[in-house]
Amino acid sequence: MNIIDFENINVGYDTKIILKDITLKIKEKEHWAILGANGSGKSTLMKLIQSEIHPRKTNPYKKEILGKSNYSIFELKKELGIITNDLHNYFAINGSFLTGYITVLSGHYSSVGVFKHQDFSVEQHEKAKETMKYLEIEHLANKLVQEMSTGELRKCIVARALIHDPKAFILDEPTVGLDIKAQINFIKMVQKLSKNCSIILVTHHLEEIFEEIQNVALIHNNTIHKSGKKEDILTSANLSEIFDTNVHINVKNNRYFVEEIY
Ligand SMILES: Nc1ncnc2c1ncn2[C@@H]1O[C@H](COP(=O)(O)OP(=O)(O)OP(=O)(O)O)[C@@H](O)[C@H]1O
């Protein structure tokens, strides 16, 4: 099954087209990085995936997620763990008085916090505990969201999505606001998740593309400029083109990094 199967999609805001002719196929169990400069349209692609914006109907197109062209967004979000900075900020503001445990438990109803009308079974509580243990965040169980660091809250939000055992995680610039140690730590956690589900990592940081990510799509010139196997796509020439600056990249221990900007 394909996680994402898009063909010839044009999408934008009001009358303005931001991304055109989007064709992208991501199969189950594949791991992808989507790379692009600031303003290239990465977040717009995320909004398209989440159906916050819709393809223009002026041309034939295909938009299937998890093999379906018609789906309820509520159900979709259980099958796809979608982690955005908007979600993070929403929790930081509206869920500031929740504990880590309640944040994770609320994933069962995809709500922000738990409410009197919601019943939780013993199994649901067990799942929340097990998920926190798996992500090594048990120590955050009683900590309030407002007392958490950016990295701690982001991990709780990932755990909240993981409670549904999603088929894929889509992470939009997940290390924004994290210092170097927290960034490495977070990417290690995503690497662990990749053992059980697809990872689609939207980023502009080359170093975050961990070994298991074997496919890359580059967004440039309002479209998916190039996509395919990591070794073919992640080249100094391609990155110089999309970031509009001369960069020389290198690979060490299966990790890509920018060696020189000139
Ligand atoms: N709600 C909106 N209404 C109109 N234009 C928008 C809207 N959101 C984004 N845009 C425009 O769409 C283009 C792509 O923006 P988008 O946020 O998708 O880029 P991005 O690659 O995610 O950027 P960044 O790396 O800076 O987060 C930009 O020119 C931006 O100004």
UniProtKB/TrEMBL annotation:
Organism whose genome encodes this protein: Arcobacter acticola
Keyword ATP-binding: yes
Annotated ABC transporter domain residues: 4-246
PROSITE patterns: ABC_TRANSPORTER_2
One Pfam family it belongs to: ABC_tran
Protein name listed in UniProt: ABC transporter, ATP-binding protein
Family: Belongs to the ABC transporter superfamily.
GO molecular function: ATP binding; ATP hydrolysis activity
Alphabetical UniProt keywords: ATP-binding, Nucleotide-binding, Transport
Gene3D superfamilies: P-loop containing nucleotide triphosphate hydrolases (3.40.50.300)
SMART domains named in the record: AAA
Coiled coil: none
SUPFAM superfamilies in the record: P-loop containing nucleoside triphosphate hydrolases
